[in-house]
Design a protein that fits this description.
By secondary structure, the chain is of the alpha+beta class.
Length: 697
Amino acid sequence: MHQPPQPVPGDGRTFPGRPVPPPRGAGPGHAPPRRDATARAQHPAARRPADLPPTHDALVCVALPGLVISTERGQLTGRGLEGFYRAGRRLLSRCQVRVAGREPLPLQARMTEAGRARFVGTLRSSPAAGPDPDVVVERLRDADGTERITLRSSAPHPLRLPVEVALATDLADLRAIASGNTGGELPADVHDSGLRWTCPTGGSSVTAHPPPADALASAGLLRWELELPPGGTATVELRVRADRAGPVRAVGRAAASPLAPAHATGDDRRIPALLRTSIEDLKALLLRDPAQPSDTCLAAGVPWRCGPAPAEALAAARMTLPLGTRLAAGTLRILARTQLTGRGPRAGLVPGPRRDAGAHLPPGCTATEATLLFPVVLAEAGRWGLPERDTEELLPVAERCLTWLRSAVGEGTYLCDPQPGGPIRCETQAHAHRAALLGAGLLDGCGRPGGEGLRQWARELRTAFRRDFWTEDRGGGRPVAARGPDGRPVPHLGAAAVHLLDTGLLGAGELAPGLLDKEQTEQLARLLGGPAMNSGWGLRGLGAKEVGHNPFGHRTGAVRVHETALAVAGLTAAGHEKEAGGLLRGLLDAAEHFGHRLPEMYAGEQRAEGGAPLPHPAACRPAATAAASTVLILTALTGIRPDVPGRTVTLRPARSTPLGEIGLTGLRVAGAPFSTRVSRLGLAMVEEAADGLQLGS
């Protein structure tokens, strides 16, 4: 995590032929594996990209660094991604239960929380007993590496049932599994009331309680003879462990989690479940920094991006500020240790990988985005109540980010791509403008120089941007996505334009001015709310009428939850609540179809009567930015704008109250519980707040 990596193509997703960061401690510059010509000649199939194993309908239990992926049948068969994982390595790929020589008939599989799933099956103890099952087999599978198998008898007489569990593993990592090169199952040894597997790079073991009556290493079998009295139960617990590693200790399950357990109430029954699931997922995605375990940040998503991605970790930490500032502080400290120092054009940069930008533009540099987000998150965290000592500690890092910004712009007006001949992107200017304005306020508040120079440059940028990044057409005009090195506009309409609405929080409850003027903002709102961009399930990444549109393209037409949430929040703040409400309703409807656990993206197919959103086969679920987006949307609808240094909090809720009455409890402002409620008439009230915090106008 701490070496300064070079940007690489892609976004860190586990695609065959692309680099895959290890789930823990992964730097965003993780290089792809090298393969020599001889190996490629001997394995011609390796030249063909393989399809990713399907996960869109899997039950994924997460408590990083632990992870377990199952199908609805409950049995782990070793196919695809099934299995228990720790830190990206599959510790157990097969776990198949047979009772009296038969597999239980699967009846139900469901998630009970972010890190646990419950599977229920039945069987008849005797074929002569009639059609009704009399034994229930329940399996509770946990991402911490445990599985409890419980048999419940409804038979009127005692039962003596032979139970066997077939176990196996390949000890493969995610990269090998995704590409189909796992090397096959490994031989097992009997070890400590269970089985153990080893390979040159490590090993794993399964221990059982109670100890099995028999263990056959050659077949990978553990066997018991369980006695069940009438109406009785019997339980076997399996514990999966990596060699020389104790139980998984997920950050989110610690008593001192950095995220507050907020709750929602109101007229819309979907909101409480969505917020509860999102907070559980965020806690499940927390990672400790190996260099400083007290600092935590969010992994990008499971299963393909289990490591931290700097720009997305900052974006998610920013959206979760209403749940407390500790996650933001930890994320900032972790990334501060990666900042490039010294001299040269990269000094002050927070490293990050390149990100695919679709067919119209070359990959973008998330290092630029992360560097510009750093002072923004620090400034807004201060508004929510980040302790002054944390601000003082992190201020020099933010100053270096802002110095890099001014140096990268130089004597010009725009911030160009770092690659020679790269385009000038619309969203990059939005990130830079927001960083300048919020960074200036941060410097002023800490008595540091440089704020006025940043504001002056931001004013010049606004004037030039409104002229150079807008193109007129018969539909009323549209923002320009980018300008090429020759100055020609790239006019396609995409979701990147939502960053123009994300202006940032200043003091006294005010938002920073945007790069667009009022008329341009109104036109952008019409475009985002129109059928070309609004799929009915959320905001498409690229307009349906644009060249290169692909409803499954992760930057060229798929619905990305984070960008949809930014649009809802930005449009609501700008007063365009009709367009915001349309996108919001589509997103909430999609969330129901996904069991309130939103993936990072799904297909941008047009919504049809009685239809459902199509999953994206390569989407992470859960994903940090998708889960954090719920917090952003609810904060925007209730209009919470704190200014802890000014000892005020302002409420400016959506007047149209698109979800009816809504209440939020258990938030954190100034480090103390904060609760608010918005009535059906759009009247907001504070029900709980820190002592001395006044309601702003």
